[in-house]
Design brief:
Number of domains: 1
InterPro entries: Glyas_Bleomycin-R_OHBP_Dase
CATH superfamily: 2,3-Dihydroxybiphenyl 1,2-Dioxygenase, domain 1
Protein name: Lactoylglutathione lyase
GO molecular function: lyase activity
Oligomer: single chain
Largest sheet: 10 strands, mixed
Pfam family, one: Glyoxalase_4
Keywords: Lyase
């Protein structure tokens, strides 16, 4: 059976300096505007990292290049897969691509599919507005992180607004 195509909807970088990364990617890719979301809290009652409750904060910037969302993440405090990426010497740099689930059931099915393919669940959570996300990793196959996300209508409208800022 051939799996359903799951094209990436987002490319993300982790950085220590949002402004420098925004500036460089704008010059290299022609991005017009970044929308910043400072101090995004990933709370322990809604997020896990390596199977334990996660409690961290990151500054995030979003933009679009056509239909592809670009995300920049700068860890602020607390242990996270973003902070560990920087501390382990793997970053700053390209961190993950994201694929989108059609609904919460599809999200769970995609996580199960990833596990069946040998990918380890690294982090998982639900953001305000109901966006579900999970990061899986298969480093032996050259896949540091793949994010799987379910994006409900409320969050989709925010993303659509950010996309419109590029016109």
């Amino acid at each position: 059976m051939t799996p359903t195509p799951r094209p990436p909807v987002q490319i993300a970088w982790v950085t220590r300096d949002l402004e420098a990364t925004e500036s460089t990617l704008s010059a290299l890719l022609g991005v017009r505007k970044w929308v910043r979301m400072p101090g995004v809290h990933f709370a322990p009652q809604a997020c896990t990292y390596l199977g334990e409750p996660a409690d961290f904060v990151a500054d995030i910037a979003l933009s679009y290049l056509g239909d592809m969302q670009l995300e920049l993440i700068a860890p602020v405090r607390g242990r996270s897969l973003y902070d560990d990426f920087l501390q382990d010497g793997r970053g700053p740099g390209l961190h993950h691509v994201c694929i989108e689930a059609a609904d919460p059931d599809d999200f769970e099915a995609m996580l199960n599919d990833a596990a069946e393919q040998g990918a380890q669940l690294v982090a998982r959570g639900v953001m305000p507005g109901g966006m579900c996300f999970a990061y899986v990793s298969a480093p032996d196959a050259g896949i540091p992180y793949l994010e799987i996300a379910y994006i409900p209508a409320e969050i989709r409208s925010v993303f659509d607004y950010i996309k419109q800022q590029q016109r």
